[in-house]
Amino acid sequence: MLWSKAFVLPSALWYYLDATNYKIDFLQAAVFLSCFSGDIYRLLCPNNYVTGEVLSFLTAYILLLYYIFPSFIKINLKYRYNLLLIVLILLSLSTLSYFILTLKFEKMQINILYLILYSVILETLFCVAMVEYNRRITLVSVNLLMLIIFFIFSDMFYMINKFYLSFSVFNFTQIFTQVFSYYFLVNFFILNGKQIN
Questions:
Q1: What's the half-sphere exposure (Cβ side, CA atoms, 13 Å) at 188?
Q2: H or E segment at 87?
């Protein structure tokens, strides 16, 4: 199962390139590369991979946020009611992050500040996705929302399986949700590119 993760993202990238006539934006390529390096980091450095894996996916999330944020700000500056939605989402996700991060992780090998930054970036991405979905339900907003939800579930099950309670069902769920997040990532990039053009 671990080796298969290294093949899923190149297949998704190949599908994306085929669907867009081999045109790819620098940020999109950087997101794919960061996710790929996060997936194979464990294979390259089996003894010390947690920090590298977390930093790779953190980079991917920051780049994805940078890709989405300019158009999000331009569109949503006129809608004041989104502020309440953002506050509610931030409160609920902060509670979830606090609950997960306060579990007694016995095998923690990473600085907790990385995980706090990681959860803040994921919360921001989720807020952006929820506001976009609430503003207008399109295939782009649905794929963005599903992408972020699957990222959150994948990371949540990774944390629980890696540091709290190692269980094969958690590992399977983490890999399953991560593979589906790549599916929604590719669809989001394709549909967003068509919408922009």
A1: 23
A2: helix 82-101
Distance CA 6, CA 13 (A): 12
Query: What's the sign of the alpha-carbon dihedral 16, 17, 23, 29?
Result: positive
| C-alpha 2: how far from chain center | 19
What does the alpha-carbon distance between residue 186 and residue 143 come to, in Å, rounded to a whole number?
A: 9
Residue type, 62: I
**Over the stretch 154-175, which tens digit does the pLDDT of each residue have?**
888 887 777 777 778 888 888 8
Distance of CA 106 to the CA centre of its chain: 25
Q: Which residues 6+ apart lie within 8 Å of 88 measured at CB?
A: none
pLDDT tens for each residue of 71-129: 776 666 666 656 666 777 777 777 776 776 676 655 666 677 777 788 888 888 888 88
The pTM for the full model equals 0.83
Cβ atoms 128, 66 nearer than 8 A: no
> Which residues, in sequence order, are CB contacts of 189 under 8 Å at separation 6+?
16, 20, 28
Residue 96 CB contacts under 8 Å (≥ 6 apart), including other chains: 156
Whether residue 91 contacts residue 137, with contact meaning beta carbons closer than 8 Å, is answered with no
What's the CA angle centered on 179, arms 116 and 62, to 5 degrees? 35
